[in-house]
Amino acid sequence: MQVNFSSIKELLDHLRQEKRMGDRFATRFILVQGCEVWDELIPGLKYEVDKAICLSELCSTADVFPNMGQLKMFLEEDTCSSRGILLTPLAEYIRIDPEAPEVIRWLAEYPTGKVNRIYVPLLAAEELFQLSINKVSRYHEGLLPDIWALEGKGSSEVVVAPFHNEDVNKNIIEGIQKYFFLWSQKSIRKAWFVTQMAPWLTVQQSRGNCHVRVYMSSFDYVHGVLKWDELRQEWGSQDQWEWLAVQIKQENNLDLLAARLLKVIEYDPDQLFYMWQRLSPEERWLIWLWSKAKSIPGTYLHSIMQKNTDVNSFSEHVSTDIFLHALPASLNFCQERKKLLLCLGTSFMPQGFWTKYEALGEPIQKLSVLTDISQQEKKELILCVNELLVNNTKLGEWWYYLEKMFPSLVWYLQPAVAGDEFVGLYFHTYNRCRVKDSADQQLASLIDQWANKQLLWNYPARSELVSELRAEGARIMWVDGMGVEWVGLLNHIIVRDGGVDTTITITRGNLPTTTEANKEWETDEVVERGLDDIAHHYGYSFPGSFLKAMDVVEKVAKKALSLLAQYSIVAITSDHGLSRFAVTATEKIGVPEGFMTEAPGRFATLERASYYIEPDRPLVMDKGHLMWLTHGKFQGAGPCRGEVHGGATPEECLTPVVVLRKISKQMGGPPQFEVITKTVKLNAANEGFLKMRSNRALEADVRLHIVGYQTLGKKEDSKVLCFQLKDWSPGNYKGKLYYANRVAGEISFVVVKGIQEQDLGL
């Protein structure tokens, strides 16, 4: 039967009287409730016995269970003659080891003899005790000693795990041996018990005032604390789960934990992946794990997270999962994917990407899966655009992809020379032909116009403008071989951060367009020769050499911006440009009598005073030199694989002068624009007019860029602009406005054609 005591004193008084009585069985079980009672009872019991045995003494090493066989051997030794023995802490043992309750059964029937009494206090273990003692037949027959019970207050909370937790509020106990030893001295109110045996433990009881929770692994702990049902152990390694487990403090969900560890307010994929390359591998994994839980359905990231189960393959999934969607992929997906790749520090596409890429047939499909991150992708992008231009594919079907995937190529295809109708149209056409790597009929027609009208003389000499800039204190930067074709890309790189204003003037270099005839730089002025070196290199190839030229232009822009930090004005210009199609043209014409061909056939030098030139030849004579105004060549020209100069085509003799000035803080932002004619009607000549109003007086030019085209606005008054749209197709359009070469906003409008029927309300 069970005897309940109201106090420790009452129990000890009973114990002293009872131990004088003879009994067949030695063990007295004491069921204790409350840590406060335990803390008082254990010291009291130690005074009543000859020996106190702690289970820690039976542990052979720091982190193994006690060997109960040693206890039996000790009790049976002749030297063990004792009035009483105290055994602690048995409840803590049977609570975590499923095999330990067997001890209760053999202790219950242990006979007196060498040992008169064995006192076994059990804290908060009544149910466990009953489960074991019920299996002893003598207990049911009433042959065993009474069970003593003592009630009290005070609870205990213990977490058992195979890893440490760094929460300073927890008492860290390492190893089973130390855990049992501490319990034999005093109750453990709150502790983190570290044992490598945790994966094999099962808690037998955690109710009442003694709560024990075993986490068999760090993942088990994370899963239990964060209460995320979908969490899977295969999403992380043992080291990753342990790292996360030890970081947990008071958080009970992933949002709170991740926000604290990553030092952010909430889940924001743009912010988190922007930080990616600066973070530790564990923090990157946490971002990945958080994205498994919080990525927004309908995004590219969310579609990846549904399939990706390992952060180590995350980058490859970002690269290749685009092929799992219908192609061409949505523009939003393409833009999001590129941003992710950049944040992850991706420098090249994996082989799996290229295997899937080669299976694509349509250039627009290819365009939608490429980015400008790697050189190989850039080459493929140019080849895709090459095919689209050759096939005359409508710009609206692919231009917006190119804007997002390879913006530098877009800016190359839109030379910033609006205002000069011929030059704008010529280089709009020429640059497209450069990407096609072949001249077309439109370019041939334009260069015939250039030659027939001798338009080169309409442009001011470069030397005069450069002299004026020097007098103004400008720092001059020369780029050997940079023609007008590069102005769009160069200008975009310079102004994209918003702190610099540019003015662009198209000038004429000296004829012939050789470096020697145009070497006007002074000793201390910067000369960048990269473009000319690429053009004349024996290994010139398309599109590789074209991409190298783009890199040179970007280098020039950055160099100019660095100079602007030292000078108030920086001017970029060139000695001459370069012509690709004067190389690819196959026809060669005999040199007129009296002239000698100069390599590589773009001009000839007068040898004798007597000469005759047929009037229908597209040539120009200047200072004893005869130069081609078109892409023709004289016989006797030397070989060339890349690009040439020396002639008088627009790309060779027109040189840009780009002047950089810092934008004054007082200037403020660009003006705001309102579209007046939201519907533009095309007349019989296929012309229409788009009008808009500014919120303040306009002091600079305004350009409209839209799907590969640009046009300059004409002022009707100080605030109203008119853009002439010629040969536009009906449809909905979105475009960007540029004021003083800076983005001033986006607009949308509709173009309609023909007479619209009006029912006049009838």
Determine the mean pLDDT. 90
Tell me the distance between the termini.
105 Å
- Rg on CA atoms, Å: 44 Å
Widest sheet: strand ordering: 1-6-2-5-4-3
- Beta percentage is 15-25%
Number of helices: 29
Shape: rod-shaped
Largest sheet: 6 strands, parallel
Q: Return residue spans where pLDDT drops below 50 for at least 5 consecutive residues.
A: 756-762
Helical content stands at 25-40%
Beta strands, count: 30
Structural class: alpha/beta
Structure notes:
The protein is α/β, with parallel strands linked by helices and 762 residues long. The chain is 35% helix and 20% strand. It has 29 helices and 30 strands. The strands form seven sheets. It has a six-stranded parallel β-sheet with strand order 1-6-2-5-4-3. Strands 12-21-14-11-13 form a five-stranded mixed β-sheet, sandwiched between helices. A five-stranded mixed β-sheet has the order 23-30-29-25-26, with no helix packed on it. The longest helix has 21 residues, at 544-564. The radius of gyration is 44 Å and the shape is rod-shaped.
What's a quick, concise take on this entry?
By secondary structure, this protein is α/β, with parallel strands linked by helices. It is 35% helix and 20% strand. Helix 26 (530-536) packs antiparallel against helix 27.
Topology:
Elements: E1 2-5, H1 8-18, E2 27-32, H2 35-46, E3 51-54, H3 68-76, E4 85-88, H4 90-96, H5 102-108, E5 118-123, H6 126-133, H7 137-140, E6 147-150, E7 156-161, E8 172-174, H8 176-185, E9 190-194, E10 210-214, H9 218-226, H10 238-247, H11 254-262, H12 269-274, H13 281-294, H14 300-305, H15 314-320, H16 331-343, H17 351-357, H18 363-369, H19 375-390, H20 399-405, H21 407-412, H22 421-436, H23 441-452, H24 462-471, E11 475-479, H25 487-495, E12 500-508, E13 526-528, H26 530-536, H27 544-564, E14 569-573, H28 581-584, E15 588-589, E16 595-598, E17 603-606, E18 619-622, E19 625-628, E20 633-634, H29 650-653, E21 654-662, E22 673-675, E23 679-682, E24 687-694, E25 702-706, E26 709-712, E27 714-715, E28 720-726, E29 731-739, E30 742-753
Parallel strand pairs: 1-6, 2-5, 2-6, 3-4, 4-5, 7-9, 7-10, 8-9, 11-13, 11-14, 15-20, 23-30
Antiparallel strand pairs: 12-21, 14-21, 16-17, 17-19, 18-19, 22-24, 24-28, 25-26, 25-29, 27-28, 29-30
Helix pairs in contact: 9-10, 11-13, 16-20, 18-19, 22-23, 25-27, 26-27
